Amino acid sequence: MRETSRILNETQAIARLGGWQYDARSRRMQWTGEMYRIYGVGRDYDINNFMQDARFYAPPDGAALQKKFKRAVETGEPFRQELVLTRVNDEKIWVRITSQPVKKSRRVLRVNGNVMDITASKIADLEKQKLRERLIIAQKMEAVGRLTGGVAHDFNNMLGVIMGYAEQALARVAPNDELHDDLEEIYHAALRSTDITRQLLSFSRKQSSTPRALNLNSAVEGSLKLLRRLMGENIELVWRPAADLWPVLMDPVHVDQILANLCVNARDAISENGQVVIETGTLVCDAAYCAAHPDYQPGEYVWMSVSDNGCGMSPATLAQVFEPFFTTKIPGKGTGLGLSTIQDIVKKYRGMIKVASREGRGTTVKIFQPRQIEPEDAEPAPEAASAVGRESGTILLVEDEEMVLKLISHMLSTMGYKVLTANSPEAAMERSREYAGEIDLLIADVVMPDLNGRELAKRLAAMRPGLPYLFMSGYSPGLLMLDPAAPFIQKPFLIKELAVKIKSALNGKG
Length: 510
Description:
The chain has helices at residues 2-15, 33-39, 59-75, 119-172, 178-203, 216-231, 252-268, 287-292, 315-318, 338-348, 402-415, 425-434, 453-463, 495-506, and strands spanning 17-23, 28-31, 80-86, 92-104, 107-117, 212-214, 235-240, 248-250, 274-285, 299-308, 352-358, 362-370, 394-398, 418-422, 441-445, 469-473, 488-490. The protein is of the alpha/beta class. The strands form four sheets. Strands 2-1-5-4-3 form a five-stranded antiparallel sheet, sandwiched between helices. Strands 7-9-10-12-11 form a five-stranded mixed sheet. Helix 4 (119-172) packs antiparallel against helix 5 (178-203). The relative contact order is 0.07.
């Protein structure tokens, strides 16, 4: 019996399962050894009170447990309850309390039961729930990304049509004509809208980043109008640019992403009226500065900060702000990916991000980007001629979007080229077979139904050896897996840009 008792106690300890029994006639309780460990009490504890002891249970749980236990003793109704147990040392654990009354002649003789420490499984369940929630968020964002990418791509095509016709109309209207200013406004509005599509394509991962040397002040000023709309009427947006900023190497779309995320976070931290301040400046992290600030990396930096006078964060919250999916916002108001995304962007450019916050005192997020040293002997990029000259030759143009096909065909005709148009790869091969003359160049969209532009170029090259080509797309060449040397022009484009690209393709320069 002693050996059996020892084995029972050891197996209960492994299972974190304690047993109890209440004798209805003597009104006495018995415990197994594991019960003392679960409740964290010594052998001198009066176990008869454990169901009623308020130290162990929160009021709602304790009241419910007592009610169920009383019913089990009086009527023989079994019960099962999961609750948080506060042990004597104030440690909180999850337990499952189960009972099974034993009756004879409809009278309850005793109530057998157990208490199981289910903390580990509860934590595992909570983690699974978090993973499920994160998966749902990720799936939603993927769906939004797909939709956004598709809409942005189609919108890009329409912008190309607007820009193209506005550009050609401007070329035919005298500068002093009353229509000239209106056409110019249409043209510039479409040009600015292409930046919006680049942001949408970047969000949907259908546009690879294109870093370039830029002035952060100019980049921020380009976003201020949109940011003020994000803030709402109750929040003042203050812009404090520093003078003489060094250039940084960044994609302007990433600047927009950083500012939008930080400003939305700042807005949400302000409950009523408040202020959000955007600032820029420079910092030289020399040996002395790094010695005083060990978490900074040596170098010359341009910084941009967003500060708010909102609710701020506790040290515990501050320690988790860069964790993916961590958010203090209510469900449906945030994904917890904002600062995580910003950190990824900053790391991409080998920069630094610092967050300072105090509860009730607001938050400041500061982004440091390395100074871009521009080569002194760098030659300016060649510009297209102010006027497109007359050309000759035959071009096979393949584009599945009818309006874009018509526009580019008109551009090419304006330049002087003979244009063979096709709205599908199959139609392009048919035009090539039917046309007896020489075709000087193939211009084809890369992404088309049934057959992509690259495969079309290969098949036409088999029919017409040595046929030069120029690819075009609303997506960047990196995402299209194009050879970096392949002749390529990104939509939307201007007639001058197209003229330069055609000459390069015909000359075999890519």
